[in-house]
Amino acid sequence: MTKITDATAITAWARLIRAKKTALEGVEADLKKNGFPPLIWYDVLLELERTNKGRLRHGDLNAELLLPKHNLSRLIDRMEKKALVSRKACENDGRGSFVCISEKGRKLRKKMWPAYEAAIDRHFASRFSADETKVLAKLLARI
Question: Which of 26, 91, 102, 143 is the most exposed place for a label (fewest CB within 10 A)?
């Protein structure tokens, strides 16, 4: 049996996609205005910092990222050149490697957070009441 999605659901879907695009563009612009690298750099640094050893295998890192990154290897190359991360061989797998956060990477992530937090507020949170954000979070958790 084929279900035909109603017009309201289609409108909601389109608005969700547009809202994501608009909010991310605003956050990216604010980070750039404050002299910071793109948001994906923050995302990588945060996921590495969250681990107890400050490292993840390449595939595991890609799975944890909030933002899609189709060529993570090239991003890691750029971040490695800035001494924010390094690659270390896996002890038990000669073909694999870990991406490790450096102290410089930890400092940059912490330095970026206030600008990122302000951008989240400006482009997202300030448009809703506290109760609305709770409802929105609950609704989006269903997807």
Answer: 143
Q: CA nearest 30: which of 113, 100, 138?
A: 113
Question: 65 is written with which tokens?
Answer: 């990222």
Residues 6+ apart with CB under 8 A from 112: 31, 36, 41, 42, 45
Concatenated DSSP letters of 25-75 = HHHHHHHHHTT---HHHHHHHHHHHHSTTSEEEHHHHHHH-SS--TTHHHH
Cα–Cα dist 40/61, whole Å: 12
Average pLDDT, the chain: 93
Tokens matching residue 48:
């590495």
pLDDT digits (tens, 9 = 90+) for 105-132: 999 999 999 999 999 999 999 999 999 9
Distances (CA, A) of 120 to 27, 39, 125: 7, 12, 6
- The CATH number that domain 37-140 falls under is 1.10.10.10
Q: In Å, what is the CA distance from 53 to each residue of 48, 96, 121? A: 8, 17, 31
